[in-house]
Structure formats: structure tokens, C-alpha cells
Amino acid sequence: MTYRVSPQVPPPLALVNARVVDGARDQEVRGGVLVLDGTIAAFGPDVTPAALPAGIPLVDCRGDVVTTGLIDMRAFVGEPGAEYRETIASATTAAAVGGVTTVLARPDTFPPVDEAAVVDFLLRRARDTGRVRLLPTAALTKGLKGEEIAEIGLLLQAGAIAFSNGRTSVRNAQVMRRLLAYSKDFDGLIIHYAEDADLVGDGVMNEGERASRLGLAGIPREAEAVMLDRDMRLVNLTRARYHAALVTTKLSVDIIRAAKAQGLPVTCATSINHLTLNENDIGDYRTFLKVAPPLRDEDERLALVEALAEGVIDVIVSDHDPQDVETKRLPFAEAEYGALGIETMLSAGLRLVTSGHLSLPRLIRALSTRPAEILGLAQGRLEIGAPADLIRFDPEEPFIVDRKKLHSRSRNTPFDQARLEGRVKLTLVGGEIVYEVSGAGEALLS
Q: Which GO terms describe its biological process (predicted)?
């Protein structure tokens, strides 16, 4: 690996001879992208070596895909307080290798992101040690306890991009109503993890025949749907912006579809794990596949894929949740929830393209364009003047996932030893190369 200090203004660069995939326009063309002063200066079929000014450095993509960098709306980055699981440096390195150029950091850290000083700490750490953009998600409630509303206005002013309670729900409906009403005054976005903890009880995997065969307590689909339905009714009262952090069942999809049909300001995401894996992959108690919400059955997975293609589900997230090996090397019922995802999200998502369930532009829309629209970001779109957050990847290059070679500090990937396709070869953030694979091998640049 080699390192370098980024100049204030990145040098010009042209990516040519590429399949340029545009998630916003749902199209793919042969051509290239010209980058000047860290922004997109031109893109499409007219960007060819012959048409470019002399002296512009060229990257011959040799038919690889060039598109906007991915925006991951749900990832645990470890800092502050859980650096043994992940750090901003390791998380953003894994992101760069996986083609993710913007990461939303979860607020359930130690201490939680419920004060402006913690937001400022994250932004400074990201500036000093991060390889890609990192945006803090602040806590909805103080201490993530679900009781007292956090200072939403001050947290937004400090630089928070949205508000969440991490992996817990706000159980008190009155508190949630006040949160929605208060956030609307600031045009804030609430990202809520919808799950009724009482219905979850002692459950550790999806309720059904598979759980019974394994002798494990199940979690009913209704645990997610009941809380989500409550939230939609509160959104109808307040008309505040709401994003469901994870939707994993057909029941939840139907609730979101109905809310959108009513014109409510609602969006939702599902994780790459729930789109590409099901409860059968747990096999003989594989704890690396113990996630929250739990992996569902195959019919539910296919319903999620269909909802994504339809546009009911807006966003795919990694739900990157690194865990120490000691918390996973336990009986399934006792093991911690969580799986890595940020480095393999794109490659796993390409399984949906290969299977014919999704077009490549539609996949990129869910991974990049739509998150940018929801968050109001300038990146995530192929537009002249937009930040040159771009990636190049070969969607057909196969590789075997080796957890020991992943760049995260933890190793709990559900795709260990899986055969995936789609290796990222180049990642640019603001026109600056932060990751590149060349004939000499892998290089992480800063």
C-alpha cells in the first residue's frame, strides 16, 4: 500500500472507454466521465480520447462500469468508544475498497451522538483519518433511552445529517409524535428502526418452521410491522419526513406502499443481507448470519427484491455492524447480532442483476442516487458540477470472499468463502483517487 497527501485541488482526470451507468436517468451508455477541479465536467458518449483537450490524464476503463460512488445510509463505525470493533479509519478504508464514497455513521456509540460536541468529534476524526465522506447521524433521544428528545436543532447546526436511535426503537408513541413534530420545524429526517421489543421477546431468528427445527425462539414478522404501522399513523398526524431504517417483510412493504399512496413523506431501506440471503443460509447455527432484524424465508426475500424493483423500497444499505470475534464465538442464541457489509455490498447486490431481478441502473439508483436525493446531497448523481465521487468496477470479475483479507477491523462477514462478482478497481472522492487497483496491485491513497 502507498499513501500520499491530497492536494487542495485534485488534478484533472478522464475515465474513458467505459459503460457509464446513470441511476437517476435509468440508463447506460458507452463513453466516459471528465473530472475537473474535483467535479464532473462532462459525461456520456462524447467523452472520448479524441474529443478531450491535450494533456488530460486518461484512465482506459476497458469496458468496465463507471458510475457514482455508493452512499451507505446505515453503518456502525466504532468511534467513539468501540474502537476494538471498528474505527473511522478502518470503516472508511473498507468503504473505499467496496466503492462506497459516503457513509452515514450510526449514533449508538459510547457515548452516543446526542450532543453537539460528539458530532464535532466525529467530523474532525473523519477529516483527519477518514478516506471517504462520513456524515454523523445524531441520536433521536438523549442517551438513546427513548424518553427525552435530543436537541435536534443544535445537532443539525453542529453537522448531523439525520436522526436515529440506532438499533432500538422509540417505544413511547407520545415521544415519537413529539420527535416527528419537532423535526419537521427543522426539515430534519428521522431514520427509525421499527421493532416492537415486547413482540421480539427472547426471539433470535425468524419465527417459523426453520426456527422450530433448530430449537431457537422465533421473532414474528409482526414485531416489525406493528411498530412501522404506528409510525405511519404518527407521520400522517405530523407530516414530518420519515425513513424506515430497515424493512424486511412483505407486511412492512405493504405498509410503506400504502403510506406512499397517501402521499406521506416516507421512504425506506432494506439491507443487502435481507436481499441476498435467507434463513436457510444460517445452516448449522452460523452466528455470522445472526442479524437484526433476522433473515427471513425465501418468499419474504423475493418480496423485498420485487418491492425494490418496483420502487417501493428506496434504498439498499450495508447495515455494517462489526462485532468482536468473542461475541460471535458463542451458541447462536447468545451470540451478538450484526454482520459486516460495507465492503461487499456492491458485489452482493450484483447477484440481483445477474439473476435478472434488477437492472444495473436500478441497483445503482438504490445504492447511490436515491440516498443522495433523500439526504439532500450534491453527490450521487451524474450531473455537470456535481462532486466527482465516482467508482470503476468490473461487474463480471469473480472473487472468493476471504474474511481475513477484508479491511474492517472485525471479521464477521456473512459472505465468508462465498463466490461473488464485481471487483472495484477505482474509487474517487471529490475527484481525488482514494483507492486504485492497477497492475502493481492494490493501493490505498490519501
A: purine nucleobase catabolic process; pyrimidine nucleotide biosynthetic process
Q: What is the DSSP letter of 369?
A: I
The total number of residues written for the chain in this structure: 446
**Confidence class for position 443, pLDDT limits 50, 70, 90:** low
Instruction: Give the residue from 132, 147, 299 showing the smallest Cα distance to 210.
Output: 299
Written as one string, the DSSP assignment of 416-434 is TT-EEEEEEEEEEETTEEE
Bridge partners, residue 135, by sequence = 104
User: Which string of DSSP letters, residue by residue, matches 29-69?
Assistant: EEEEEEEETTEEEEEETT--GGGSPTT--EEE-TT-EEEEP
For CATH 3.20.20.140, the residue range(s) in the chain are 68-375
Q: Is 31 left (phi over 0), alpha (psi -120 to 50) or beta?
A: left
Statement: the pTM of the whole predicted model exceeds 0.90? yes
Contacts of 389 (CB under 8 A, 6+ apart): 68, 69, 101, 102, 133, 379, 380, 428, 429, 430
Q: Can the peptide bond before residue 107 be classed as cis, meaning omega within 30 degrees of 0?
A: no
Cα pseudo-dihedral 159, 162, 165, 169, rounded to 10: 170
Instruction: Give the number of other Cβ atoms within 10 Å of residue 56's Cβ.
Output: 16
Cα 429–Cα 376–Cα 308 angle in degrees, nearest 5: 90
pLDDT per residue over 393-403, tens digit each? 999 999 999 99
What are the tens digits of pLDDT across the range 283-301?
A: 999 999 999 999 999 999 9
DSSP letters of 100-135?
A: EEEEEEPS-SSS-S-SHHHHHHHHHHHHHH-SSEEE
Q: Give me the active site residues, please.
A: 319
Mean pLDDT, range 26-34, rounded to an integer: 97
Question: In degrees, to the nearest 5, what angle opens at C-alpha 270 toward C-alphas 250 and 215?
Answer: 65
Q: With respect to CATH, is domain 13-66+388-444 assigned 2.30.40.10?
A: yes
Helix, strand, or coil (residue 28): strand
Report d(CA 405, CA 151) in Å as an integer.
41
Q: Are 360 and 351 in contact (CB under 8 A)?
A: no
Pick the CATH number of 68-375 from 3.20.20.30, 3.20.20.140, 3.30.70.1400, 3.40.50.1860: 3.20.20.140
